[in-house]
Amino acid sequence: MMCIQSLLLMLLCVGVFSVEVQRPRGVPSWKRQFYEEGKPFTCLDGSRTIPFDRVNDDYCDCKDGSDEPGTAACPNGSFYCTNAGFRSTFIPSSRINDGVCDCCDTTDEYNSGAACQNTCREMGQKEREVMEKMAEIAKEGFHLKQQLIQEAKKSLEEKKTKMTDVQVNKKDLEEKVEALRTVKEAAEQPEKEAKERHLKAWEDNKALIRMEKDKARMAEVFLELDDNDDGFVSVAELLSHAEFDSDSDGTFTEEEAQGILGGVEKVDTLGFESIWNNVKERYVSETATDAAAPAEMPQEEIREPVPDNDSEHYPDDDIPEDEDEDDEDDEDDDPDDDYKTPPTTQTQEPKDDVDEGPMPPYDEETQLLIDSAQKARDEFDEAERALREVDDQIKNLEKEISFDFGPGLEFAYLYSQCYELTTSEYIYRLCPFNRVSQKPKYGGSETNLGTWGKWAGPEGDVYSAMKYEHGTGCWQGPNRSTTVKLTCGKETVVTSTSEPSRCEYLMEFTSPAACQEPSNSVSEHEHQEL
Amino acid sequence: MAPVLLLWLAVCLSGAWAVDRGNFKTCDQSAFCKRQRALKPAESPYRALLETMELTNTKLTLQLINDNNKVRLLLELYRLQGNMTRVKINELKPLKPRYEVPDVLIREPPTEPLSLLSQDENGVVLSLGAESQRVIVSARPFRLDIMEGREVVMSLNSRGLLAFEHLRMRKDTFSYKVTSTVASVWDNIKRVFTSQTEPEVEKNEEADPANQAETAKDEDKAVDGMWEETFKSHSDSKPNGPSAVSLDFSLPGVEHVYGIPEHADDLRLKTTDNGDPYRLYNLDVFQYELYNPMALYGAVPVMLAHNTHRTTGIFWLNAAETWVDISSNTAGKTVFGKMLDYVQGSSETPQTDVRWISESGIIDVFIMLGPTPTDVFAQYASLTGTQSFPPLASLGYHQCRWNYNDQEDVRSVDAGFDEHDIPYDFIWLDIEHTDGKRYFTWDPHKFATPKEMLQGLKDKKRKMVAIVDPHIKVDSNYKIHNEIRSRDFYVKNKDGGDYEGWCWPGNAGYPDFTRADMRDWWASMFAYDQYEGTMDNLHTWNDMNEPSVFNGPEVTMHKDAMHGDWEHRDVHNIYGLYVHRATAEGLIQRSGGTERPFVLTRAFFAGSQRYGAVWTGDNAAEWDHLKISIPMCLSLGLVGISFCGADVGGFFKSPGAELLVRWYQTGAYQPFFRAHAHMDTARREPWLFGPENTALIREAVRQRYTLLPYWYQLFYQAHRTGYPVMRPLWVEYPQDPATFAVDNEFLIGKDLLVHPVTEEGARGVTAFLPGKHEVWFDVHTFQKHNGAQNLYIPVTMSSIPVFQRGGSIIPRKLRVRRSSLCMEDDPYTLYVALNVQRTAEGELYIDDGHTFNYEKKEFIHRRLSFINNSLSSVNLAPDAQFTTASWIERIVILGASKPSKVIVKTTDGQESPVEFEFDASMSVLTLRKPGMNAGEDWTVTLQ
């Protein structure tokens, strides 16, 4: 069996050899010189020399596999497919006669019975077509890229000019702000004094009213407590009011009652006046339960009437820096902070206002002072806002000017643009140098797939990929991130998206900016042998 | 595959990264276990009624009576061929039949006559045939002792823990009312109840033991959980009431017991006195914990007991929830303490006591009397069958992930293997490949042209596995569901409707795989014209077949669900086996009975080895999980399931490069070699960790492929004999106690010793090389080491410490190609490792690798032996016929001396010289291209 086989094999080899003159199977033409028919063969690593009949004899003698270029005997060998009409290539020698067609010229399957078709011409044809198309795209793309570079340079210059202008502008504004600040402060001083005067007058008036009210209530309480109408409030009468239980132990003793009465058995109205401050805090009316609690609102009153325009009320920054993560997954993020109920202690206030009345309007003189101070404030605020805007402008310009838009700034045109791709389920949105997001096609909230991180191409080709990081977190996984692969194209388009690994997205993006200068020889790496 | 739903649950409930123990019962939470475990060793209330004894040619029968309640049991005792004893105990007259597990034994075990040696009023002595083996039946209290000579091998009920909860009527009394109300009212009523006297039982005593039982005083007290039981929010209606069975076994002289998988624990079983018993109840445990007795996905109720002169086994054939208690009189004693005992001569014999408790069914125990480990394997195989003989390709490398997203993903992963020159045989598709988790379908967008994809793989001589789970989406537009419903094949709930539970597809039905007609139908669904888009290179994976029910008690089916007349309680542990079986039969049938199927299962039972492979479920990317893969697969191998593996890399979490590489290196030397990953983990195809790690992984996988001939031959042996493929050391060195607890290394067959590196940052490992008279050769360096030593081996990242036993011959195929099929006709290299006697022996098995034709004697099986400086190949199966194109390209003789001449002689009598090389430093002789056909007789002589 074996003998027949090797015989067949030898016949086959001879057959092949007669066509491919003097070249052992699997050896490329440029290595032919090392395999000289009939002369001892030295392994290409020089490790040993063997008789020539051991070359391609289906037994591995050389450590580097070089004695078996045409058989699968060596684990580390490689076989050369000529692939006339297509690209020639090396395949691992383990693919020789394994029943799978690897070389398009079928030469790897010379003894396996696999029915391989020579497809080199078709493949070559196809590849050439593809290459031509790609070359055309590259050419046009590269042309566009040159334009982009020109535009970006121009734009950069413009921005630099603008920067200078804006910086001058900023200086002016700063001066203006300072001047207006002085004006404002000068106007505010008399305003403040006038308002304080007005307020003090009102406060005094209110204190008077409060005292009257307190007295009236004291009388009322006295009458209520004085059950037997004898003109005295006695220990006994007090005992029915458990709210006076000073140690709150549940029993209101006579001693405790006496303590409240100032150590005596009973008090008349005068005596009652001296203990009133003790009593009023705790007394609960027998008739009505809504006895007004003592007024306690001085602070409130001061704040209310003064429309003090504080500059702090401006929104801090109108730049949507990071529209914070839509937190669908991360649970730790939202404990009930958002739902905390606001403190609810304002129930009595309106009533007091009604009792004592609102503050009377300012007199004409005061009002005039207020109006002019307000005008000064408004002008100052306006100037300050303008200054802030200029600051932002400078910040943005600085960022844009210093941003890495590629060696020729060819990627600058992508700045502040967005590109979308709609798949069967989602709309993907790439805003270069800003963020990537995904939104369900049919409703649902947007998911952040990462914000701009860095250029992430391999060394030497760093502008071929972008990395967007720190997107919405995944359960038990990393935060979402996206790698955007840039390829040369005439148009700027997102061509595909995928999620090869959970929460790690891959986006293909074409842009002329990614085009390289086309080499003029398309067929350079087409190692054609005929 | 991880239950996503549970994922959420786990987050909500614990947040910690581990199993949520609260989802699973402890013995205390399982009413029958608690009840039974409350019984302490004491004099047994059972008495043998010797006057009822009948001895026929095949068995002895005898009634037992419980003196407490007068219930009678029927004992059947068989002596089985092959040195086994079967003990069967059932109620003499049960109210209704009790479940006896069918379909596990491959046939009614053939018996051998028992002969009566002596009898008196205390008991009877029966002969178990040769070797002075006898069984003694003692009458009062009842116990069985199996003796050999003067030595007790095993005793049953010697601790009086035989318990048999007879079936009884539920009485319309307080207890009835109590159990029929919701449990939350229970406490309330209990107060009333305890103040009541026990309701009076019927006065009219009848001969019927079931009614007699009603007279029992203490037994009928309504113990909590007898007629209803709740766990978390689930209630078990228990219409049949208490039905547990229990029996104790004493093993004098035994300190090492093994088996009863599946548990994530050491190879040697621990005593359970201070915790829960080992539990056998097939469960989908999310993120299981290591080193504890909790139940996992599968259950094989077989325990092996071993000491230096005997190995025995206990096979407890019961498919209900089962708990196994182990105690030992030497546990906890230090080696020094034992030595002291020995010196003082005061020691009692070491003894291990075991107790089995099952929730329902009967007691049906097979006592395998060994006496050698291989005898026990053969005995167990004669009962439940052997490992199915897997297609050769399934012994190659499997690339899996939850999920390969679409056909393009599959194509590019496949191309990645070629690009990085790493062989593989199977690429796997998890649940996402289906159309909305409807098994037997393909996602119309992601897998629009499955046949094209399969053909693409076939063109490269590769294959695919797609998942088919047993939960069926309830969807009237789904053919499979409609057919099952129209045939009324679904498991029923306690009220008679179709049982429905929550699983991957949402609401799902569970086909009743215990029904033969259901299984036949299921099998027919794998036909190429039924299961659209399939081809012969598509194989199947059964997951979630415990069965997993996300919203069920303990994530499984309610025990009061009905399989025909039987409760799920009775059949739970065998459900997964039936799924596996029906699927394997489907794959056989679709080929017209010619092709060997490959089916992987997660749930299993005794006998599952007959249907395919098993993996250790949803492990995690942690070093301890890598370590535990060894004892887990060793334990499975001991009880017949050889085709075992763990997810390489770990299912949950993402492994670092070092762990991943070490796992490949370990997995390459374990029977089922598959990488798998959870959906939420980063991609981890072998080439994603940098060129160095890619090279390390490639090398590990290539080592696997070179050894495929050896693996294949061992699986053939396992299929023929039941011997495990992956073996604990003690199996081959049964007299060396130093091997008894080793589970950080293992043997493949008997000739390869593997000590994988499973420690992070390891600089070296200490391997134990067993055998006083053995020598072991490092397979990479060919360095020779003596046996019976601890050998320190410095390791680097590329090290996989593997040793070939002196005295063995291992065939390899060194031309590793892109898949096993590509290597079919490749030549062999024989590695002959000489022992101190300068002899060696091995086998070579060859067949077509994928059909059942080997059953028709179409194979080559040869014995290779080296003796007297001559290596020859002799036909072990002269009546078999097969031809191979493979030949012998190289013979490497380890531990050889330099010959002057080497001659090969073939069948035709031709002699020719063979060239050779001799490496004196390692004493390695390499014969160059002797060239004989691997299927022929030949002799190579060194002169």
UniProtKB/TrEMBL annotation, chain A:
Pfam families: PRKCSH-like, PRKCSH_1. Keywords: Coiled coil, Disulfide bond, Endoplasmic reticulum, Signal. GO terms for molecular function: calcium ion binding. Residues 287-363 are annotated as: Disordered. Residues 149-183, 373-400 form a coiled coil. Residues 1-18 form the signal peptide. The keyword Oxidoreductase does not apply. Residues 317-337, 352-363 have a biased composition (Acidic residues). The keyword Endoplasmic reticulum applies. Residues 300-316 have a biased composition (Basic and acidic residues). Residues 416-517 form the MRH domain. GO terms for cellular component: glucosidase II complex. SUPFAM superfamilies: Mannose 6-phosphate receptor domain (SSF50911). Residues 213-248 form the EF-hand domain. GO terms for biological process: liver development; N-glycan processing. It comes from the Eukaryota. PANTHER family: GLUCOSIDASE 2 SUBUNIT BETA, N-LINKED OLIGOSACCHARIDE PROCESSING. This is Glucosidase 2 subunit beta. It comes from Betta splendens (Siamese fighting fish).
From TrEMBL, chain B:
Residues 722-810 form the Glycosyl hydrolase family 31 C-terminal domain. Residues 76-325 form the Glycoside hydrolase family 31 N-terminal domain. Its EC number is 3.2.1.207. It catalyses: N(4)-(alpha-D-Glc-(1->3)-alpha-D-Man-(1->2)-alpha-D-Man-(1->2)-alpha-D-Man-(1->3)-[alpha-D-Man-(1->2)-alpha-D-Man-(1->3)-[alpha-D-Man-(1->2)-alpha-D-Man-(1->6)]-alpha-D-Man-(1->6)]-beta-D-Man-(1->4)-beta-D-GlcNAc-(1->4)-beta-D-GlcNAc)-L-asparaginyl-[protein] + H2O = N(4)-(alpha-D-Man-(1->2)-alpha-D-Man-(1->2)-alpha-D-Man-(1->3)-[alpha-D-Man-(1->2)-alpha-D-Man-(1->3)-[alpha-D-Man-(1->2)-alpha-D-Man-(1->6)]-alpha-D-Man-(1->6)]-beta-D-Man-(1->4)-beta-D-GlcNAc-(1->4)-beta-D-GlcNAc)-L-asparaginyl-[protein] (N-glucan mannose isomer 9A1,2,3B1,2,3) + beta-D-glucose; N(4)-(alpha-D-Glc-(1->3)-alpha-D-Glc-(1->3)-alpha-D-Man-(1->2)-alpha-D-Man-(1->2)-alpha-D-Man-(1->3)-[alpha-D-Man-(1->2)-alpha-D-Man-(1->3)-[alpha-D-Man-(1->2)-alpha-D-Man-(1->6)]-alpha-D-Man-(1->6)]-beta-D-Man-(1->4)-beta-D-GlcNAc-(1->4)-beta-D-GlcNAc)-L-asparaginyl-[protein] + H2O = N(4)-(alpha-D-Glc-(1->3)-alpha-D-Man-(1->2)-alpha-D-Man-(1->2)-alpha-D-Man-(1->3)-[alpha-D-Man-(1->2)-alpha-D-Man-(1->3)-[alpha-D-Man-(1->2)-alpha-D-Man-(1->6)]-alpha-D-Man-(1->6)]-beta-D-Man-(1->4)-beta-D-GlcNAc-(1->4)-beta-D-GlcNAc)-L-asparaginyl-[protein] + beta-D-glucose. Residues 1-18 form the signal peptide. Pfam families: Gal_mutarotas_2, Glyco_hydro_31_2nd, Glyco_hydro_31_3rd. This is Neutral alpha-glucosidase AB. Residues 388-714 form the Glycoside hydrolase family 31 TIM barrel domain. CDD domains: GH31_GANC_GANAB_alpha, GH31_N. SUPFAM superfamilies: (Trans)glycosidases, Galactose mutarotase-like, Glycosyl hydrolase domain. It comes from Betta splendens (Siamese fighting fish). Keywords: Endoplasmic reticulum, Glycoprotein, Glycosidase, Golgi apparatus, Hydrolase, Signal. It is an enzyme of class 3 (hydrolase). GO terms for biological process: carbohydrate metabolic process; N-glycan processing. Gene3D superfamilies: Glycosidases, glycosyl hydrolase (family 31), Golgi alpha-mannosidase II. Pathway: Glycan metabolism; N-glycan metabolism. It is found in: Endoplasmic reticulum; Golgi apparatus. The keyword Endoplasmic reticulum applies. The keyword Ribonucleoprotein does not apply. PANTHER family: ALPHA-GLUCOSIDASE, NEUTRAL ALPHA-GLUCOSIDASE AB. GO terms for molecular function: carbohydrate binding; Glc2Man9GlcNAc2 oligosaccharide glucosidase activity; glucan 1,3-alpha-glucosidase activity. InterPro entries: Gal_mutarotase_sf_dom, GH, Glyco_hydro_31_C, Glyco_hydro_31_N_dom, Glyco_hydro_31_TIM, Glyco_hydro_b. Belongs to the glycosyl hydrolase 31 family. GO terms for cellular component: glucosidase II complex; Golgi apparatus. Residues 196-222 are annotated as: Disordered.
